Amino acid sequence: MATPNDTQANKCLFCRIAHKQEPKSQLLYDKDDIVIFKDIRPASDHHYLVIPKSHVRDPKHLNLNDVELVERLVATGKEFLSQMGGSVDDARLGFHWPPFNSISHLHLHVISPVKNMGFISGLVFKPNSYWFVSPDWVLERLRNMNKT
């Protein structure tokens, strides 16, 4: 797990946020190895980023051993969204797929309500496009790694 003294943790913005080294960022959830904070450019009323504290570059760099991590990110994100008054039934969850990610630290977008997203946000967070993939797609990809 990345610690504040690790070189990568010092270079990565999301590592610094996870380890409370970014004074302008506020963690809304901090438990075990997962943190949640607001997206700086919200696509809807609720837009949160759910990240592991340890540095994982992006969803493309996950492997079969990371299935549980992705499942926990999703479960934590959904539970948090519900606690914040967002609707899981009208939510979009997903990861930007490289090279279309802006930060090279694994982060799950949790956005709700989808019906309040603008046109551009709808494109940026278009489900199962070349640039934005669902957690189910990522999990299926990881589980299929075992079959090759």
Automatic annotation (TrEMBL):
Gene3D superfamilies (alphabetical): HIT-like
Keyword tags: Hydrolase, Nucleotide-binding
Record-linked Pfam families: DcpS_C
A molecular function (GO) term: hydrolase activity
Motif Histidine triad motif positions after renumbering to this chain: 105-109
Domain HIT: 13-125
Family label: Belongs to the HINT family.
PANTHER family referenced in this protein's UniProt entry, alphabetically: ADENOSINE 5'-MONOPHOSPHORAMIDASE HINT3, APRATAXIN-RELATED
Protein name, as recorded: Adenosine 5'-monophosphoramidase HINT3
Organism, scientific name: Biomphalaria glabrata (Bloodfluke planorb)
Name of the gene: LOC106076143
